[in-house]
Amino acid sequence: MTTSLTTKAAAVAAEPTGADRATAPRATTSRRRKRPPHTPLRPRPSIPLTLVTGLVLVYTLLPLVWLVINATKDQNGLLNSFGLWFADDVNFWDNITRTLTYDDGVFVRWLLNTLLYVVAGAGGATVLAVLGGYALAKYNFPGRKAVFAVVLGAVAIPGTALAVPTFLMFSNMGLTNTPWAVIIPSLISPFGLYLMWVFATEAVPTELLEAARIDGSGELRTFFRIALPLLMPGTVTVLLFSMVATWNNYFLPLIMIKDPDWYPLTLGLNAWNAQAQTAGGEAVFDLIVTGSLLTIVPIVVVFLLLQRFWQSGLAAGSVKE
Amino acid sequence: MGWGFIGPFVAVFGLVFLAPIGYALYLSVFRDRLIGGTSFVGLDNYGEALADSRFWEGLARVGLFLLVQVPIMLGIALLVALAIDSGRLYGKSFFRVAVFLPYAVPAVVASLIWGFIYGTRFGLVGNINETFGVTLPDPLSPSLVLAAIGNIVTWEFVGYNMLIFYSALKVVPRSLYEAAAIDGAGEWRIVASVKLPAIRSALVIATIFSIIGSFQLFNEPSILQKLAPNAITSDFTPNLYTYSLSFSGQQHNYAATVAIVMGVITAIIAYAVQLRGMRKG
Amino acid sequence: MRTHTTRRLLGTLAVVSALALTASACGSDTTDGAAGGPKDVEAALKKGGKVTVWAWEPTLKKVVEDFEKKYPKVDVELVNAGTGDKQYTALQNAMAAGSGAPDVAQVEYYALGQFAIGKSVEDLSSYGARKHGAGFTPGPWNAVTDDKAVYALPMDSGPMAFFYNKKVFDKHHIKVPTTWDEYVEAARTLHKADPKIFITNDTGDAGATTSLIWQAGGRPYKTDGTDVTVNFGDEGTKKYTATWQKLLAEKLVAPITSWSDAWYKGLADGSIATLSIGAWMPANLSSGVGSASGDWRVAPLPQWTKGDKASAENGGSSLAVPKAAKNKELAYAFTEFATTGAGASTRVAEGAFPATRADLESKAFLDTPFPYFGGQKANQVFAESANNVGTDWSYLPYQVYANSVFNDTVGKAYVSPTTLTDGLKAWQDASVKYGSDQGFTVNK
Fold first, then answer.
1. Per-residue pLDDT reduced to its tens digit, B167-184
2. What is the pLDDT of residues C186-216, one digit of tens each?
C-alpha cells in the first residue's frame, strides 16, 4: 500500500502525467456523490441501461452458475438431474473433501505445483517484461525497433507446431519432466512486454531519469529508485495477466510433463476426465466439476484483491497515442 | 545499456521462441518417412503447403471467424466498457468483476460447461426444446459449430477486452467531456467524438491480439471435437491441422512448414492492421 | 527417381538385417548364453534396479505392488503418461529425443504396428517370449507378433459382446436380437415406442466400425512388410454398411459421442439401450453408471448370418519394451510378470479382461456372478466370444493416423447425405495417400 501511495505522490510531484490522470476520475467519483445535478458528466443511474448491460452479465455468469450448482452433486446426481438446478441431496462439502483426498490427495499436490508455476513463471515473466518494457521505452539502442517486430512475428506462428521442436530441445537439455519445462516458457509474455513499454513511456518522465543521471546515479540504481516505483501499477497489471495465463496453461505442460507428480491443475483435471474414457477407468465427473470450481476460486480471489492495481496500471498503459 | 535491461527477456525469448522457430525452419526443408527415413527436399514442403486445400479451407474458416466474431466480441466489450464508464449503472464494480470472471476459467473447464449447455439431449438446449416444445437447431451441427465456438471465445474474452477498454476510458481527461458538454453535445455525441478517438490505441491493440488469437484458434475446437467429432474435422483450423499432422501423423516436417506459412500470413495481416490503425486520425 | 529406389533398397536392407538379427537372437535363446537371454533376466532381477512403466490401465497398480514384493531390489515406477494417442505421442517424442522413454509402455493393439514398423520396440522373442504364445488367446497373440518378432505381450483383450438394458427391453417387449436384421427391427420398435430411446449411440468411431467389419468377415487391411493393402470394398464391409446405413438413414442411433458425460447419462437413464463393445466394459459400467445397476445384461453379439457365432476384438492393450529402454532385462521381467501367470490373474481379479487362456478357462472366472448384471455369469458370454473371434485380422502399420482422420471422412455419413460406403472410400483414399507419403507401397 505504501509503495503505491509514494508512487502516486512521486508522479504527481514530478510531472502530472500518467499516474495523475489515473487518479483524476477517482476524485470526481467522490465529488459526484455530493453533487446531485445530473448532466452528461454527472449522470443518474439508469435502470434500462443496467438491465441491458445485465444481459451481458447473465451471459457471462450463467455458465458459472452451472458450475457452482453441479459442484453440489454426486456422480448419480450429475447424470440424473437437471443441470441448472440442484439434485435431491446436496453433497458440496463431501465433494470438496473427496476431491482433496482422492488418489492420496493428488489434487493438493497439483494445486501446489500450480502455485509454484504461477509464482516462478508469472513472477519471472513480470520481471522480464518490466525490464524489457523499460528498456524499449527509455533507451535508444541499436535494434530497438526490431525487437517488438520480431516478438510480434514470432507470436504469430502457431504454437502447436512449435511444440515438438521445443520438446526436442528441452529434452536435449534434460529439462522435460521437470518444473523448468513449464516455468521457462512461461517467462515470456509478449503482451506484458508491450504493456510495460507503453506504460513506461507514459509513467516515467525522461526528465526525472536525466536529473538522476546528472546527480551521478548509476543506471541500475536509477531504475530501482526512480523508475520501478513509478512502474508499480503497470507491474501489477502484467503480473495479474501472466498469473491467469500460467494458471490456465494447458498445452505446454501437456507436452513437457509426463509425471503426474508435476502436473498443474489443468492437466490433472484433464487426466481425471480421460479416466472416464478408458477401459476399466473410474468415471469421476463429480470430482472434475468440483475440482474445476476449486481451480477457479484462488484466481478469482487474487483478482478481487488486486483489481484496483490493474485498473490504474492498464489505464496509464493504454493512454499512449 | 538498453540491451542490458531487455537482455534477459531477449535471451529467454530466443530460447523458447526463436530457437524452436529456427528448428522448425530447419525441419521444413526435410521430409521424414516411416519407411525410408529422412531426406532433404528443399522447398517442396512449402510448395505442398501452398497447394494444400485442407490448409486453405482451414484458413478461410478462421478468416470468416475473424470477420464475424472479433467485431462482435470487441463491440460487446466496448459497449459494456462504455456503460460502466458512463456511471449510469447500478452496481458497476460488480459488473466489472463479473464480466471479467470467465477469463479465469481454464479451457478444460469451459468445455465441460459449454458441452452441457449445447447438449440437445441432456443439455440446456435439450431442456429448452422439451419445455417449450420447440426444436432449436443443434449448436454442434456442422453448419453451426463455428458459431458455437465463436460464442465460447466471446464468452471467455469479452471481459478481458472490456477491461482494456474500460481502463483506457478512465484516463480520458474529463476536461475533454466538459468542453463537449458545454457545447451541448449529448452522451452519444461525446462517445463518438471524444471517448472513442481517445482510446483508439487500445482498440488497435485489442484488435491485433484478437486477430492473432483467431488465426491460432485451437483450444475451443480441439476440446469440442470430442463432442462433435464429425463437425470439427482434424483440419478445422490451421492450428488444429498442424497439431494433427504433427501429433497423429508424425509429420513434423510438414507441420512445421504449415505453421511457418500460417505465421507469415498472420504477421502480415497484424502488421497491416497496426499500420492502418495507427495512421488513422 | 534414383534416390527413391536407393531408399527402397535401403529399406529392404534394413528389413533383411532385422531378420538376421532376429534369427541370431532366436539362436541365442536356445543356447541361453548371449545378451538378452532369460538368464540375463534372472540376473537382472537379482541385481535389481529401476523400471519405469507408462500405462493408464488401473489394475497395474496392484501388479506393481506384488512385483516389488517378490523382487524387493526392483523399483517399479508406474506413470500415467496420458491415455491412448496422447501417450503414443509422448512415447514417439521421447524416442525422437533419445531420452526420457520409459522401460515398459502400454500400447493398444491397433497402435502397435506403428512402433513395430518403426523398429522402436524390442523384439521380445530373444527374452523367451515365444514360449508364452500358447498361453494367450489367439486374437491378442496374433496382434502382437508376426513370423519375425514378438513386439509386445498381450495385457488384456476385448472380445465383443452385446450389452443391453433389460429393463428397457422388457418394458417395450423386445427380444434380444440374434441377428443384425433383428437389431434394426428392435431399433425401430424401441424408437417408435419412445422417441427418446435409441438402440445405441454412434457418431462415428473408428475402433467400433472396424470391429464390426471384422465381425462381419471383412478384412480391409493387409500388411506384408512395407506392402500395404487397404480395401473397404469387400463383402464383410458391404454387410456392415448395408445394415448401418439403415440405422443412420432412419436416425435410429443417438448422436452422442461415446465416453462423453452425455453418454454416461444415456446409459444411466436407459435412452441408450444397448452397446456392442469389448468385454472390458463391465468395470466402466459399474463405476460410471452405478445407478443403473441391475438393469443391464450381456448377450452374444447379433450375427450377420443367422446361426453364426462370429465375434471380433474391440480394444485391448499390450505391454511393449521400447528400444530406448534403459534396463531391458528388468523391463521384460516386469512385462512377463504383469501379463502371464499370477500377475495376469491378479489383474483379472481387479476387473481386467484376460488375454490368457488359463484365466479365461478357469472355473472361478467363468462362474463369477456379476451383481451389476443381476447376478448373470457374464464371463461365460465373454469367454465364448473370445473363442469365436475371427482370425487373420490386421490393422494398418499407421492405424493411429488413419483413425485420426476417420471422422473427417466416414464422419460425413453421420452429418450429411454422404453414404457410409462413400465415407469409407474417402477414408481408404486418405489412408492410401498417407501410406504412400510415408514410403509404404499401398494398393499396388
1. 778 767 777 778 888 888
2. 999 999 999 999 999 999 999 999 999 999 9
The residue behind cell 530466443 is B14
Q: State how far the Cα of B125 lies from the Cα of B131, in Å rounded to an integer.
A: 10
Q: What integer is the mean pLDDT of C410-421?
A: 95
Residue B82 to residues A237, A314, B187, B188, Cα–Cα distance (Å):
21, 16, 11, 10
- Enter the ipTM: 0.86
User: Cα B141 vs. chain centroid, distance in angstroms?
Assistant: 22
Q: Where are the domains of chain B?
A: 1-42, 52-279
Selected residue with higher pLDDT from B112 and A286: A286
Instruction: Tell me the three cell numbers of residue A131.
Output: 525490464
Nearest alpha-carbon partner for A126 in A236, A248, A283: A236
Model confidence at C19: pLDDT above 70: no
Chains that touch B (3 or more CB pairs under 8 A): A, C
Identify which of A164, A4, C237, A296 has the alpha carbon closest to the alpha carbon of residue B27.
A164
Query: In chain A, count of helices (H) and strands (E)?
Result: 16, 0
Residue of A nearest to B118 (CA): A63
For A191-250, the pLDDT digits (tens) are: 888 878 877 877 788 888 999 999 988 898 999 888 888 887 778 778 877 888 888 888
Rg of chain B, C-alpha, whole Å: 23
Q: What is the CATH number of domain B52-279?
A: 1.10.3720.10
Mean of pLDDT values over C18-25: 35
**Where in chain A is CATH 1.10.3720.10?**
102-318
Cβ count within 10 A of residue A138: 21
What is the rounded CA–CA span in Å between residue B214 and residue B269? Answer: 12
C296, β-bridge pairs: C165
CA distance C376 to C293: 12
SS3 A320: coil
The residues on C that touch A, with CB distances below 8 Å, are 54, 56-59, 79-84, 86, 90, 93-94, 96-100, 156, 158, 259, 261, 264-265, 268-269, 278, 280-281, 283-284, 287-291, 315-316, 351-352
What residues contact A275, with CB distance under 8 A and at least 6 apart?
A281, A282, A283, A284, C56, C83
User: Using one digit for the tens of pLDDT, what is the confidence trace for A151-204?
Assistant: 878 888 877 778 878 888 898 888 988 999 999 999 998 888 887 887 787 778
- Local structure of residue A40 (DSSP, 8 states): S
Task: Inspect the interface and report whether the beta carbons of A279 and C278 lie closer than 8 Å.
Answer: yes
Given a contact cutoff of 8 angstroms between Cβ atoms, the answer to whether A240 and A252 are in contact is: no
As beta bridge partners, residue C136 has C356
For C231-256, the pLDDT digits (tens) are: 999 999 999 999 999 999 999 999 99
| pTM given for the model | 0.85
What's the full length of chain A, in residues?
Answer: 321
For B229-272, how does the pLDDT look when each residue is reduced to its tens digit (9 = 90+)?
999 999 999 999 998 998 888 888 999 999 999 999 998 998 88
**Closest by CA position to C408, among listed C393, C392, C428:** C428
For A102-318, CATH gives 1.10.3720.10
- Give the burial class of B229: count Cβ atoms within 10 A of its Cβ; 0-12 exposed, 13-18 middle, 19 or more buried: buried
What one-letter code names the amino acid at B23? Y
- Cα–Cα distance between A184 and C364 in angstroms, integer? 55
Q: What is the mean pLDDT of residues A10-32?
A: 36
Reduced to 3 states (helix: H, G, I; strand: E, B; else coil), residue B168 is helix
Please say whether the beta carbons of C57 and C317 come within 8 A.
yes
**Residue in the block written with cell 489443468:** A266
Domains, chain C, ranges and CATH? 2-157+315-361 (3.40.190.10), 160-312+372-442 (3.40.190.10)
> How close A159 comes to chain B (CA, Å)?
8
Name the residue among A44, A55, A28, A192 with its Cα closest to residue A125: A192
Taking the Cβ of residue C83 and every Cβ of chain B, the question of whether any pair is shorter than 8 Å is answered with no
